[in-house]
Design brief:
This protein is an alpha/beta fold. About 30% of the residues lie in helices and about 20% in strands. The strands form four sheets. Strands 3-2-1-4-5 form a five-stranded parallel sheet, sandwiched between helices.
């Protein structure tokens, strides 16, 4: 077969597609076929659990038997994905007789069609063929899609008058490491005219912005200078109403103690459209990178994320510290460094044992990250002794004593 394939897009909606074989190859190919709206029929005596789940969900029809001649009658497209070369050859031969294009998974060039390495980006479907070198196709595809996501390759949307981004995007930047922002978040950041950021956002990404992008510092430093939330809201609205695309880049997830919904409400009241992009929350990501799992089988069946913005007993506090003290699972304390002694005292007074393990992760995911391990009855003194400072995430509970065995590393 010639390596000069003709690259075309097939409209398979409602059309019969037959895939023979229920193993890992089928598991990879089926989701995209199902996503096209094709009437997929699977022929195989056995399948992987994931493929079986697709059949149980009604996403395809599963014929629980081996392939037999005539199975391709009425099909528009076929895929031979068994682990038996003779069966795959027979499927391709039937497809040839019936003038049906057929992919042969075990020997691509012997079929009448090959599957391109594909990726999606905002309505674009990128396909790469390399004449029978699937690893090369996949590598090139990955680079192209990543470049589209980051804006390194313009997708032409703005010039074509499509996909223009009005208003504000509220982007959760993750816990600090620039690699932990979501793909969508990074893509929108690359399109921004104005970026309003705080100190907990992934600051390294600011250096990748276009030279003409305006950066507004909305840093909120605990117990230090802070931009008023009203000022931030007004700035978002002002720039958006001036016709600029504004990205509000926040640390972690915008809705986890990030006042993100306050900004959404302010924009909505002003008639400014908002796109919300969730982020990887520091409450779980920071402990994870420090080898502190917030749950573990047989150790913790609950996780409570608590704000340390106000102390126990404060008139504005909404936290039931007595209830937290009676829990046996994990408490993740955010913004609690300065009042750590008060929080620990409240939990101890409510009945939490003094020897409850505690782990404090400072500057999580960043080069300066460090972890302090202690117990509830001495954590405040230990934190003060080593100079723990914000930002830090405090994990309280049995999981804080867990650590991987490093002896074999």
């Amino acid at each position: 077969m010639s390596e000069d394939h003709y690259l075309a897009g097939l409209d398979l909606r409602g059309r019969r597609v037959v895939l023979v074989g229920g193993g890992s190859v089928a598991q990879r190919r089926l989701p995209r076929l199902i996503g096209t709206g094709a009437a997929v029929e699977l022929i195989s005596p056995h399948t992987t659990a994931a493929v079986s789940a697709m059949a149980d969900a009604g996403e395809l029809v599963w014929h629980r038997r081996r392939y037999a001649g005539g199975d391709l009658e009425g099909a528009w497209y076929a895929l031979a994905c068994t682990n038996d070369p003779q069966v795959n050859a027979a499927i391709c031969a039937e497809a040839e007789r019936r003038h049906i294009f057929c992919v042969r998974a075990d020997a691509g060039v012997e079929g009448t069609a090959v599957t391109a390495a594909t990726g999606r980006h905002e309505g674009l479907l990128v396909g790469v063929l390399s004449g029978g070198e699937p690893q090369r196709s996949a590598a090139v595809r990955d680079h192209i899609v990543e470049a589209l996501h980051t804006g390194a390759i313009p997708d032409g949307a703005a010039k074509a008058g499509i996909g223009e981004l009005p208003g504000v995007a509220l982007v959760g930047g993750g816990p600090g490491d620039p690699e932990l922002i979501t793909v969508k978040g990074r893509r929108l950041l690359a399109r921004a005219d104005v970026v309003i950021t705080d100190r907990l956002g992934p600051r390294d990404l600011l250096d990748e912005l276009r030279p003409d992008v305006e950066i507004v510092d909305a840093a909120k430093i605990p117990y230090g200078r802070a931009a008023s939330q009203d000022v931030i809201n007004a700035t978002l609205i002002e720039h958006a109403k001036a016709g600029k695309f504004v990205v509000r880049l926040k640390g972690g997830d915008p809705y986890v103690f990030g006042r993100g919904f306050e900004e959404v409400l302010a924009c909505a009241e002003a008639g400014v459209p908002v796109t919300v992009v969730p982020g990887v929350t520091s409450a779980f990501a920071v402990p994870a990178v420090a080898d502190v799992p917030v749950t573990h089988r047989g150790v913790a069946h609950e996780v409570v994320v608590v704000s340390g913005h106000v102390p126990p007993g404060h008139e504005t506090s909404l936290v039931d510290w007595d209830a937290l003290g009676r829990l046996r699972g994990t408490i993740v304390l955010m913004m609690g460094v300065e009042r750590l002694a008060e929080f620990a005292g409240a939990l101890l007074a409510a009945g939490r044992p003094g020897d409850t393990p505690v782990a404090i992760v400072q500057d999580g995911t960043m080069p300066a990250q460090r972890i302090t391990r202690s117990t509830l009855d001495s954590v405040a003194a230990d934190a003060k002794a080593v100079g723990v400072r914000p930002p830090a995430v405090t994990v309280i509970g049995p999981v804080a004593a867990l650590a991987p065995d490093q002896s074999s590393s």
